[in-house]
Design goal:
globular
């Protein structure tokens, strides 16, 4: 089954129990589709004979600790989508591995110090990278953030893996650096020709501001289970991997 044939199946359904995904999601998918990494990603996923190793890097939001209150994080939801729901024959990608090395409180700078353990020991095929929330709170050095993020991307490419940069979702803490950090992620993605998942852009479309929708948050900077469901769906749509009749993509988001 070729996933390109099903990427639009959830475009205007009740899959998210919210308004239809905004144009920003379609635009990001169209942007990604022009990249060599998009074709490489789809070729790997279309090959049912070869398992894919998916690795998630990030902070507490990627980790999914505490604030989802026992529900699945977006990385765990992705595992359900790709390992079970992705084809007409559930479980056909059963040997895929989805590993999450996200750590609460982490920054891009901090990750680089721990990279041999959290990335170097593995041989992933696809690596999701999401930093910026703590960088805007703790480090507050935009140039360093971009340099660190670029270094992480290069480390991933050196391992012959496909990097996927994620723009963190919006928050409600009114940190005026957040839009600049979001733009920094987009800038690195463009410069390095990386796949991009732009959570902030979609959340802004829904909220109409630079502040997150309250029903998607557990506190000022951490999404709750609903926010994580929205993030998983955004990953699926912006990468063009939206399994037909996916229960996960139909979970309520408020």
């Amino acid at each position: 089954m070729n996933i390109r044939n099903i990427t639009a199946t959830l475009a205007c359904t009740a899959a998210l129990c919210t308004p239809c995904m905004a144009d920003s999601v379609s635009d990001t998918n169209a942007r990604n589709a022009k990249l060599a990494d998009y074709q490489a990603l789809h070729s790997r996923v279309d090959d049912m004979q070869k398992p894919v190793f998916w690795l998630f890097l990030g902070d507490s939001i990627t980790h999914g600790c505490q604030h989802v209150k026992g529900f699945r994080s977006f990385a765990e939801l992705w595992m359900e989508i790709i390992k079970w729901e992705y084809t007409n024959r559930p479980g056909e990608r059963k040997n895929d591995i989805v590993l999450n090395t996200g750590v609460s409180g982490e920054t891009a700078t901090g990750f680089l110090k721990e990279a041999p353990w959290r990335l170097g020991q593995f041989n992933p095929d696809v690596v999701f990278i999401m930093f910026g929330i703590n960088d805007a709170n703790k480090v507050k050095d935009l140039a360093k953030f971009k340099a660190d993020l670029t270094a992480i991307v290069k480390m991933v490419r050196k391992k012959k893996a496909i990097p996927v940069l994620q723009v963190p979702m919006l928050t409600t803490d009114n940190n005026n650096l957040r839009p600049r950090y979001a733009e920094a992620v987009r800038s690195v993605a463009d410069k390095e020709k990386c796949l991009l998942v732009d959570h902030a852009a979609y959340w802004k479309e829904i909220s109409g501001s630079d502040s997150a929708k309250a029903k998607w948050m557990n506190n000022a900077i951490h999404p709750n289970e609903f926010g994580h469901r929205v993030m998983a769906a955004t990953i699926a749509k912006e990468l063009g991997i939206t399994p037909k009749n996916s229960p996960t993509l139909r979970l309520p988001t408020e």
